[in-house]
Amino acid sequence: MSLKLSDNDAALGKNYDRAAWFYEKSAKFYSTNQIRASKRFQMKYVQPGQSVLYLGAGAGEDAIMAARRGANVTCIDISPGMLDQVRKKLDEDSLSAELICVNAYDHDRIGHYDVVCANYFLNVFRRDDMANMLNHTATFVRDGGKYLIADVALPHGNPAAKAFNLAYLKMAMGTFWMMGLVPWHENYDYPSFFADAGLTHDHTELFRFAKKGPVLFQSIAATK
Predict the structure, then answer these.
(1) What does CATH list as the number for 7-223?
(2) Which of 19, 167, 147 minimizes the C-alpha distance to 82?
(3) pLDDT digits (tens, 9 = 90+) for 178-223
(4) For residue range 9-36, what is the model confidence (pLDDT) as tens digits?
């Protein structure tokens, strides 16, 4: 299913189309597989038969995890190329999911989903736009449902570890900025925005470079 995208969304979608073939491969190498681990951690919150939405689904490795668990998965993204990658994975595993090429602001299923996942999605927005998107997409979660975020983490640990976090993550942001995929911004403290979105912070799991190095990524769970 595809809705008509605005000219700006269509242009941004084409930028992501060009990255679709290497997006997950590069993330695996760059993160020492910890980006995938941060998504896999969320499966403890996904149950068979639940309705699960992936925002900015990208190439969909996390959506495939949920579909394998028997969830009813919906993926939305403004990039047809990214959704093509999801479709290929679904076909390879004989799985099904609803794929919608749409801006998340144009998705209007209020209170429809048991789980909404915003994985490496909210960090494609500047601060005010991120807060507005969080508030909007939190309305998709039913009362008592979960809002999950896997994303880059704030610096933790000693000064050297914090410096590594900032240098390493900003290097990646700079690369994506040059590709026209993200704006330049600070790393976000997502739980500090939850009250305005009607969410309660449950837990944050941290993921380290090569499992033992500085903290780089996180998986956050909240309840509506």
Answers:
(1) 3.40.50.150
(2) 19
(3) 878 788 899 999 999 999 999 999 999 999 999 999 999 999 999 9
(4) 667 778 788 877 777 888 888 899 999 9
Cβ-contact 61, 31 below 8 angstroms: no
Domain ranges within the chain, ordered by starting residue: 7-223
**Pairwise CA distance, residues 205 & 219, whole Å:** 5
pTM score over 0.85: yes
Distance CA 224, CA 220 (A): 13
**CB hemisphere CA count around 31 (13 angstroms):** 26
Helices 7-19 and 80-92 pack at an angle, to 10 degrees, of 50
Alpha-carbon distance values, 116 to 149, 157, 180, 201 (Å): 9, 30, 26, 14
The H or E element spanning position 219 is: strand 215-223
